[in-house]
Amino acid sequence: MSAAGLRFGYGTNGFADHRLTDALSVLTHLGYDGVALTLDHQHLDPYARGLAPRVRRVARDLRRTGLAVVVETGARYLLDPLRKHRPTLVGAEPEGRAARVDLLRRAIRIGAELEAEAVHFWSGTPDPGTTPEQAWQRLEEGCAQALDEADRAGVDLAFEPEPGMLVEDLAGYRRLLRSLGGHDRFRLTLDIGHCRCLEPWPEARCVELAADRLAHVQIEDMRRGVHEHLPFGAGEIDFPPVLEALRDARYTGLVSVELPRHSHAATATARDSIEFLHRTATALPAPPTAGADARPARARVSAHRSATVPMEVAPE
Asked: pTM for this structure?
């Protein structure tokens, strides 16, 4: 754990060329506190034979390494070898939506076995010819089914707004939360890079606005209007105010590095990332004393940006 009391993790989608056991060992050696585990063909495939004993082995590995875990469901081609991230909860094909719900149910049950802090998912992109009303109805139905499973398993969900998808920002998440009756288990994954990409507020302000629902945070660098996950220092984000906002919000979940296109240099990238995060967290100013006015910290955040941002989407 860093000097700011933050817990840092790393996503296994950035370790696609490693065995899962090896990836966990590397992350432990580098000083990470947790792992964001994407269920995929090479890392705990939820459809391969012998799932139960494989889940037990991963649970033992997590206990051995001391890593906390969030289970993620954003594998590119797990459900369809021809269409990335398909099918989705908002797709036109009922059987496709059912397949996505089945994956979420499997992930939730795996999350319960691994004592995961949350299970992460997103909405998906509507198919051509789908009206917004149809897409939202499908999404609400799929989320409700996932919440039924989450209630049975005692696992929180961590929904991520994703640029270019039906729900791409915090406003969309709040709309979906309201439609689901404010369900306590329907929590939030906040991706700091996405905040830079398209939210109308500075990144630290996004943390403040999301703090009451946070179950998971993803972090990487990014540029305004371009959805491309970048190593720290390669984008535009000013990270000290972000980590300060997380600390001041008393956020205790994982802050997971999300670099899915860097598996070719996974170990070096993970090492550079944890060194950057620890160095940045250690240099933060002392937190305000009890009852102190926290406005000076927020005053250091950059000025409000326009909500209308042309966006370029890079492949993940």
From this structure: 0.90
